[in-house]
Write a sequence for this structure.
């Protein structure tokens, strides 16, 4: 299949979608059901895909849709190399795709894998949007914690967290009128950052026109600093977490983006999660404050 000629940001359905809108046996269920067993069978067969009541083996089908976003017709430009006005169009596309898919699915995940080291097989700078009717593990944990914090403290957790980090300043990487990027207190990857709006925003479509302009310039500055850190087009996985699309208020939720870059000491030295880090817990190779200072200095030295 050949894409049409396009002049700006272009979106299309993924030809090799990991999620499908129509899944056999899909539908609402209160829980797994007993799987049929043949006489003498000690458990489910190797080809048995039916959910069953054994608490050690539970499953259910998930329906969804996967889309691809080409940032620009220029194959040689990554996000920080694009003009701010063109990045703004990417932000608008993130928002419009989130709104459209959110009308049909509970969760919409906007993300970008940049660089071969992060598994990106296509060098043309692009991102993806996956939508599903089930809430994945990471946002489900964020949902529980943000809701619990609001119930206990009466204010959104990540709004309070952003204010506290700005007050301290030591882990702040970049700040604008509408956004702040920090190396989070709990960061695992060496130069991990968290992007937060300064005011409560539930989802990408809720960003105002001024905030979208601000975010475009903000991303250009922050991601450009990453590229200058080791003088390489810096690889990463970046993704936005907004409130799930479901009934009821979402006052507990704050939109945010995670950036997970794998490089540690140079363009060729990667951080590996192995040994104790896989079996025990991750270990930091430099403090969050040291990482923030290095990236912050690069943002300030080169501006936007």
């Amino acid at each position: 299949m050949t894409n049409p000629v396009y002049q700006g940001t272009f979106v299309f359905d993924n030809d090799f979608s990991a999620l499908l809108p129509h899944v056999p046996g899909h539908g609402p269920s209160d829980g797994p059901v007993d799987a049929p067993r043949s006489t003498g069978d000690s458990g489910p067969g190797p080809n048995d895909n039916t959910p069953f009541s054994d608490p050690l083996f539970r499953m259910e089908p998930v329906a969804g849709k996967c889309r691809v976003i080409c940032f620009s017709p220029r194959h040689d430009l990554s996000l920080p190399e694009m003009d701010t006005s063109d990045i703004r169009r990417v932000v608008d596309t993130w928002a419009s795709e989130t709104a459209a898919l959110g009308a049909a699915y509970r969760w919409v995940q906007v993300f970008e894998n940049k660089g071969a080291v992060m598994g990106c097989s296509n060098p043309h700078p692009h991102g993806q949007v996956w939508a599903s009717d089930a809430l994945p593990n990471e946002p489900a944990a964020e949902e529980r914690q943000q809701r619990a914090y609001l119930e206990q403290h009466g204010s959104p957790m990540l709004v309070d967290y952003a204010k506290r980090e700005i007050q301290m300043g030591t882990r702040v990487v970049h700040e604008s009128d509408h956004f702040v990027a920090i190396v989070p207190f709990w960061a695992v990857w060496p130069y991990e950052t968290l992007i937060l709006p300064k005011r409560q925003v539930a989802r990408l479509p809720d960003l105002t026109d001024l905030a979208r302009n601000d975010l475009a310039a903000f991303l250009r500055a922050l991601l450009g600093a990453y590229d200058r850190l080791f003088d390489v087009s810096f690889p990463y996985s970046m993704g936005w977490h907004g409130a799930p699309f479901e009934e009821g208020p979402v006052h507990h939720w704050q939109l945010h983006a995670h950036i997970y870059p794998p490089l540690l000491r140079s363009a060729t030295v990667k951080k590996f999660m192995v040994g104790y880090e896989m079996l025990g817990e991750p270990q930091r190779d430099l403090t969050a404050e040291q990482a923030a200072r290095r990236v912050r200095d690069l943002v300030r030295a080169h501006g936007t």
